[in-house]
Design goal:
Length: 340
């Protein structure tokens, strides 16, 4: 409990403590006799927090704030509220440990961010630098097949073919890894874009795959949103390409739709393909995860990880609903307000 002290003109200039409880004694590590009746100026060298307490008395509203001077080395959460005319009460809570934990968490978060940035940069540089040697290996293998085909027996030809296919898979893997690292390291500013136009661009990029597989693509109305256009095309292109690739005996059919849900738009890419076992529906969004052998379906196992990273950069979520043999529906959300 504290009491305001006024000057001759009635202006608050200080305050004195008139009562404390045992818990506060222990908190500030001072006996009652050193505190009761003593002014703030005498105890702290100035009327500590006087402006806050005067405001409490003038408005009749309580206030809370953090203090590091009442007990040096401790962080106290002070709550002040009016009690009687000219008097106010304070409640003090020692939050030192909590603040230390918050500081440690903030430092860990900064360290993690630095580590992630370094890993992204490493992946980008490594992937970029690996492309040229792989192109050289692939090129020389192709040259060997053309120039020396008549001089090689069947086993040697098979070895050359294995090497060429392995180099091609490695090249595709490096290309996708480079794309994955770019999502985090090369962030372009977001701007308003027509999602119908971006979806159509994705389909144009896939026109050869659509033609070869005889796929039917249906697109419903889509909104205008604030997005990274390049990444959003890549997201839609990956999802549509997968929907075509993993088709069953029937010609692939892909439906792209969208609906509002509170503060976000929910997009859906639905197919009539082979479907996905429930136990694999979270795993497929992890990098390098493949559910099928290379001989069954081409790919590196990075595409959906790229999709997840793009969606999260836009503040959204991505998931799949599917049953084996009944097709899959891939959903992702984008905030209506956009994310800078």
């Amino acid at each position: 409990m504290h009491e305001l002290i006024h000057d001759a003109d009635g202006v608050p200039v200080d305050y004195r403590t008139i009562n404390i409880n045992p818990a506060y004694e222990r908190m500030i590590d001072k006996p009652r006799g050193d505190v009761i009746g003593v002014t703030a100026s005498a105890m702290f060298g100035r009327p500590l927090h006087l402006d806050r307490y005067v405001k409490v008395m003038e408005t009749g509203e309580s206030v809370s704030f953090e203090d590091t001077e009442i007990r040096p080395g401790k962080v106290l959460l002070i709550s002040a509220f009016p009690f009687e005319p000219m008097r106010f009460a304070t409640l003090a809570v020692d939050i030192t440990y909590r603040k230390e934990l918050e500081t440690q968490l903030e430092e860990r978060a900064r360290e993690l961010a630095r580590s992630n940035e370094e890993l992204q940069q490493f992946a980008y540089v490594a992937s970029h630098d690996l492309q040229e040697p792989l192109r050289m290996v692939t090129g020389y293998m192709t040259l060997l097949q053309k120039r020396c085909d008549g001089q090689l027996d069947d086993q040697a030809k098979e070895y050359v073919r294995f090497a060429a296919e392995g180099a091609a898979r490695a090249r595709d893997l490096v290309k996708d890894l480079l794309e994955y690292s770019r999502v985090g390291s090369l962030q372009r500013p977001m701007s308003e874009a027509n999602m119908e136009h971006l979806c159509d661009l994705a389909c144009i990029n896939l026109r050869e795959q659509i033609r070869e597989e005889g796929a039917a693509i249906e697109r419903g109305p889509l909104p205008n949103l604030v997005v990274d256009e390049v990444q959003m095309v890549a997201l839609l292109q990956n999802l549509i390409s997968n929907a075509i690739k993993f088709h069953g005996p029937s010609p692939p059919r892909v439906d792209i739709s969208c609906r509002e849900d509170g503060g976000e738009w929910v997009f859906c890419v639905k197919d009539n393909g082979i479907g996905i076992e429930p136990s694999y529906q979270e795993r497929i969004f992890q990098i390098f995860q493949r559910l099928h052998g290379v001989g069954e379906y081409p790919g590196t196992g990075i595409g959906l990880a790229i999709c997840k990273r793009i969606v999260e950069r836009h503040g959204g979520r991505i998931w799949v609903e599917s049953s084996p043999g009944e097709g899959s529906s891939f959903f992702f959300t984008v905030l209506k307000s956009g994310r800078s």
